[in-house]
Design goal:
Peroxisomal Thiolase, Chain A, domain 1; 10 strands; globular; ten-stranded mixed sheet; alpha/beta; about 375 residues; single chain
Length: about 375
């Protein structure tokens, strides 16, 4: 089977709901990452065979096949097609999987995997509001027959995980403080400089709080009465984009490219849709089994911090070291721009492997519907 190489990976800064990127049209936001990728790699954009872009809430300015409109908005060749992928929060990680699979199968030689989401313009619950106006609901009769009328939501899922694994509010808050601390250190040390393409005079991730106060955090109200979850232990509403160029060995020779990493092994799983966010546990086990590796063979982990209990339960069940997980902070500090996050995490991972000289990184994230992708990336 052919190898799928990552030539380069670049991202926008991750902006906040009311920050410097809040008014950037999603297609322009996606175009920014695509333009930066083409400039950095120096590849002829006309040689790209497809653009796969993750985006979750495909409504309004994020509808209309944003993978295509972002490419065209960037002024790139019209003959290059594009599409949009939705596997909830794992959308752009799935874009990476599809791109790698196209290369490995020999079907294509040069593919862009990307992601975009502007949650300031298109809120996470925008589709639900449309359904309500239409007088309908997301769940059909057969779903209700199987799962009943119980609430299915990420917030309830995260709370159920905290209860099932006995994760206290105090433990979650300590984890959140550490996420901000790591992200602040990484920013101060310039670890993100080589992976961020500045936009709107913003060159750093806006949500990081270098001096977050644990006492103040402890005074915040829960997201719901009776919950241990608060906004402080949850990912932020965010704006961002990222893009990666995936190539075959033949394409690298033809275009004189040098890879920084390769996609080694991939897995995707389904899990309990009520708990919803436990997918990273079986996904990690699955991808390690496929690769013939153990958890100790992995140098760095990126497990998306949708909520603190997701990562804490995952680490407990898989044996993954928290010291080697989200070493430069995670979504609690830096934000979670839904459809872009998979590509953002992959970008962070490949650049950190390169910086530290690590051999293997494993990326995983919880996804709507009780799903999860897991990817093992090897530094070249």
């Amino acid at each position: 089977m052919a190898e799928a190489y990552i030539v380069d990976a670049v991202r926008s800064p991750v902006g906040t709901r009311k920050g410097k990127l809040a008014d950037v049209h999603p297609a322009d936001l996606g175009a920014h990452a695509l333009t930066a990728l083409m400039e950095r790699t120096g590849v002829d954009p006309g040689a790209v065979e497809d653009v796969l872009m993750g985006c979750v809430t495909q409504l309004g300015p994020q509808a209309g096949v944003i993978g295509r409109t972002a490419w065209l908005s960037a002024g790139l060749p019209e003959h290059v097609p594009g599409t949009t992928i939705n596997r909830a929060c794992g959308s752009s990680q799935q874009a990476l999987h599809f791109a790698a699979q196209a290369i490995m199968s020999g079907t294509q030689d040069l593919v862009v995997a990307a992601g975009v989401e502007n949650m300031a313009i298109v809120p996470i619950d925008a589709n639900a509001a449309v359904l309500e106006r239409m007088g309908t609901r997301r769940e059909g009769a057969k779903w209700i027959e199987r799962y009943g009328e119980q609430e299915i939501s990420q917030f309830r899922g995260a709370q159920l995980i905290a209860e099932k694994w006995g994760i206290t509010r105090e433990r979650m808050e300590e984890f959140a403080v550490e996420s901000h601390r790591r992200a602040a250190v990484a920013t101060d040390e310039g670890r993100f400089t080589g992976q961020i393409a500045p936009l709107n005079h913003l060159s750093h991730d806006e949500g990081i709080r270098p001096n977050v106060d644990l006492e103040k955090m402890a005074s915040l109200p829960p997201l719901r009465e009776g919950y241990a979850l608060t906004a402080a232990v949850s990912s932020q509403v965010s704006v961002g984009s990222a893009a990666m160029l995936i190539a075959s060995e033949e394409a690298m020779k033809a275009h004189d490219l040098e890879p920084i990493a390769k996609v080694s092994t991939m897995a995707v799983v389904g899990e309990d849709p009520v708990l919803m966010l436990t997918g990273p546990i079986p996904a990690t086990r699955s991808v390690l089994k496929k690769a013939g590796l153990t958890i100790d063979d992995i140098d760095l982990f990126e497990c998306n911090e949708a909520f603190a209990p997701v990562v804490l339960a995952w680490a407990e069940e898989t044996g993954a070291s928290l010291e080697r997980t989200n070493v430069n902070g995670g979504a609690i500090a830096m934000g979670h721009p839904l459809g872009a996050t998979g590509a953002v995490l992959a970008t962070k991972l490949v650049h950190e492997l390169r910086r530290t000289g690590g051999t293997r990184g494993l990326q995983t994230m919880c996804e709507g519907g009780g799903q999860s992708n897991a990817t093992i990336i090897e530094r070249c």
